[in-house]
Amino acid sequence: xxxxxxxxxxxxxxxxxxxxxxxxxxxxxxxxxxxxxxxxxxxxxxxxxxxxxxxxxxxxxxxxxxxxxxxxxxxxxxxxxxxxxxxxxxxxxxxxxxxxxxxxxxxxxxxxxxxxxxxxxxxxxxxxxxxxxxxxxxxxxxxxxxxxxxxxxxxxxxxxxxxxxxxxxxxxxxxxxxxxxxxxxxxxxxxxxxxxxxxxxxxxxxxxxx
Length: 210
Description:
By secondary structure, this protein is an all-alpha fold. It has helices at residues 2-11, 14-35, 44-57, 66-91, 94-97, 106-119, 123-126, 133-143, 148-173, 177-181, 183-209.
């Protein structure tokens, strides 16, 4: 049991994911966060950012250069969204009636729907940068049966923008010693910044219900 707990802790720590699982675990986490219900708690933003840093500071850990890393991460993110889309497409509206469980919270889907109602298909691009939203947006796109070709366009553009931006920033900042020494604080700041829009949408949605 203790080993399982330790493994789950490692899955929420970006540096542990890369140190213990290398490129394979990195790609799986990005895939899971963007396509599986269980993926909403995974540290996608900080993981991608740190992977870019490692490309320049400790390239042997991943064994690929920056362009290859970006392409592989984009492929994982795109495939993850496709899985999420087809899950939502097959499950459909009953998903909104599903009871809360350890890996599923209906309020997350409701927050994503609120965000989707406001931004439309662009949610699939904007939502890439937002925790929870990026997990449930492709599922909701399947639920409402958005045209698959249109979905794929948003899917690919969103993946390229999300992965390309964070990975490149991590790569270029990774050349500075100060950034490497204070990565923990940077990751915390990144989590706070990306969580604020989700929190605002969540509380607004709760207020509207009342």
